[in-house]
Description:
Blueprint: H1 4-24, E1 29-35, E2 41-46, E3 52-57, E4 61-66, E5 71-76, E6 88-91, E7 97-101, E8 105-110, E9 116-121, E10 127-132, E11 139-143, E12 148-151, E13 158-161, E14 168-173, E15 179-184, E16 188-193, E17 199-204, E18 211-214, E19 220-224, E20 229-233, E21 239-242, E22 254-257, E23 263-267, E24 272-277, E25 283-288, E26 302-307, E27 313-318, E28 322-327, H2 331-336
Antiparallel strand pairs: 1-28, 2-3, 3-4, 4-5, 6-7, 7-8, 8-9, 10-11, 11-12, 12-13, 14-15, 15-16, 16-17, 18-19, 19-20, 20-21, 22-23, 23-24, 24-25, 26-27, 27-28
Amino acid sequence: MTTRAxxxxxxxxxxxxxxxxSACSPSAEKLQRDERSPSRxxxxxxxxxxxLSFVATAEHGxxxxxxxxxxxxxxxxxxxxxxxxxxxxxxxxxxxVAVAASRETIALWDTSSGEVRGYxxxxxxxxxxxxxxxxxxxxxxxxxxxxxxxxxxxTGRRLEFLGHSERINSVDISANGRYVISGADDHxxxxxxxxxxxxxxxxxxxxxIALVRFNPDGSTAFTASAQxxxxxxxxxxxxxxxxRHRSRHKSFLSADFSAxxxxxxxxxxxxxxxxxxxxxxxxxxxxxxKGREDDYPPRAAVIAVAFIDGSDEVVSENSAGxxxxxxxxxxxxNQAR
Length: 337
C-alpha cells in the first residue's frame, strides 16, 4: 500500500508530466464526452472520415454509433452467436461493413441494415488483429503464430501470408483490397499484395512493431514500435519522417491520417491524443482524455482516433468507456499559412 506522501508524490508527478507535455504543444479543445459503457471498452474503431464509431463492451455488446447525430445505430450482442471477449474490431473505409474478432471467431455485419454477413472460426492460432476492405470483399486476420490470412467471404478464397517469423500485432488493408501492411514482433513491417502474397516493401524497425496504418490514398503508411514511429513512402520505401517526441519509450495504440494525408492523429496508453505533421514529424497538438472518476491513478488508453473530414475536429474512443470530440482550434490552418 502507498502512503499519503507517496500518493501525493505520484499525483504531483502526473500533473507535472502533463504540464510539460502541454507546454510543448497546444491542447485541443474538448467539445464532447459521451459514455459508451459503465466500466470499460474492450476494443474500438472509427471510420476514416470520423463519422462512425464501433465499440465492443462487456456490458452492452458491440455498438455502432453515428457520430454526426450522436445516435446508436446498431447493438449486436456478443454471446448470442458465440463471439465474446472481443480482441479487435475494424470498419471498412467505405463504412459498409464492421468486423469483430475474438481469439478464434470472426463476425461481419452490414452497417446499414445491421444484418450479419457471416461468422467464421479459426482454430490454427489466436487472432491478434483484423482489417476489412470496402464492401467486405477481403478480411485480413493477423495471428499469434506469425501468419496473416486473406479471406474473401464471397468466394471462400483463402491465402496465408508467411512473410513474418513472429507474432502479428497489427494489420491494415488498402480500401480497394489490393495491398496489406502488417507489423510483427520480428521488428518488421511488410507491404504485400493480397492477390499473390508477394512482398513489395520491407520497413525495418528497432523493436516489435505494434501498429501499422495506411493513409487514405495508400501512398504512405505509419509504423510504430515502442522506440520509434515512422511515416514511409510506399513506392520508394523512403522514410518521410519520424515522429518527434521527447519520450525514450512511447507507445501508440491507434492512428489515422487526415483526408489530405498531411496530418496524423495518434492515441496512446498514457491517455494522449496527439496530432502530428507528416512532412517533418512535428507534434502540433497534445491533449489528454479523462479516466473514470474512481480510477487512481487515472487509466484511459486511447484505442481509436480519427479526423472528421471537412472540419478541424478529431474524435477518439478510450478504454475507460468514453468517446470524445476535440477541436484543434485553428492549429491545422496555422500550419497551412
